[in-house]
User: What shape does this take?
Amino acid sequence: VGSAAALPTIARPAQVRRASDVIELGPTKVKVSRMLLGSGTFGGGSSSNQMRKLGAEGLADVWLSAYENGVFVWDTADTYGSHAAVKAALTLKKIPREKVTVMTKTSARDAADMKASLDRYLQEMGTDYIDIVLLHSRMSPQWDQLDKGCMDVLSEAKQAKKVRAVGISCHSVAAMGVAAKSSWLDVCLCRLNYA
Amino acid sequence: MAMKVLGEGQLRDKLDDALRFAVTKDYVDAFTIGVESKDDLKDLLERIPKVSQQA
Assistant: This one.
């Protein structure tokens, strides 16, 4: 009997991964398609290139095509002004709310702002819950202390079923390192590319 | 989840390489891409399975 090291290596083809693959995220099991539909490649000041080019209804039209192809996550942000596209997709395009995952990112910096912002987001989107809310563009390795007020409000919103999962979008490795150890967050969005 | 996989559009001329880098990482559950048209969407839907097999 030969050693395991002597066994021939079986070449296996790489797994096919599709934009429409369904993934369950973390302990909350929120479902996402492998590809999310971003709405702010260049975003800020309640606007983005997608919103400027397409408008809310135009972006919702692209999302409808994606939905018909199994891509069902709308990645919005307050600072992109793209919550209106969620409302357009749900109302004008008649996409069923329970069939999509809606994510937004917040620039709120304290509890009062977070509470008021969350109520506003729900109204802007025309929904009574948001699947994922992320603290937007955090860079500080102290974000978990600086954002305690926002985190508490989002945790309460989870209990009230206004939000299903919480997390942060990290814009620094230091912030990501803290996120990796945090028991508060369910979802972490990180910058990643090969350049 | 990953963002900026196309480097805010700067990697659009190396689209397959950029997509392959993100889609083949086991530690990346999902990734977000800003789509601006149905043509963009169609192209991505076709490219992603192809590049995922070119690890």
